[in-house]
Specification:
single chain, alpha+beta, three-stranded antiparallel β-sheet, rod-shaped
Length: 143
């Protein structure tokens, strides 16, 4: 009986068929956390760049206007197409703030705030406590 038990234990010790599965179980959480971090950082950089470019593009679009009212309308029209021009952005999450300067030199300041609710960043906020509620881009153009 003892000889039979030792033989079973030796067979169990030599059997490596489950080693890959155990290695995967040990490494997978680290791999998935790393992939999630890479995706989150990439998404944040992409959205941040898109928001900045949206503000800059709206300021540039306003140059074609003949007076300040027409410039504001051109900027608003550009901002209303945010999700078309910038696929990472959701139109409903974009909050523009357009301010005009009539002093010398006249100019326009466009501030775009993007709410991250319902995005990958919102998920990262809940898991990692990043406290990112919105992303802001700002542009100023003097005429």
């Amino acid at each position: 009986m003892r000889h039979k038990t030792l033989r079973h234990l030796n067979n169990f010790r030599r059997d490596t068929s489950g080693a890959v599965a155990i290695e995967f179980v040990l490494i997978a959480p680290l791999l998935f956390a790393l992939l999630f971090g890479i995706m989150t950082i990439g998404y944040y950089v992409g959205v941040s760049h898109s928001v900045s470019q949206l503000a800059t593009g709206a300021a540039r679009a306003s140059v074609a206007g003949l007076d300040m009212q027409e410039r504001v309308e051109l900027a608003e029209a550009y901002l209303s197409r945010a999700s078309v021009n910038y696929p990472l952005l959701t139109q409903s999450a974009v909050t523009p703030d357009i301010r005009t300067e009539t002093t010398n030199p006249p100019g326009i300041t466009i501030r775009v705030t993007y709410a991250v609710d319902g995005t990958v960043l919102d998920l990262a906020n809940s898991l990692l406590k990043l406290n990112i509620s919105d992303i802001t881009g700002k542009s100023y153009l003097a005429y």
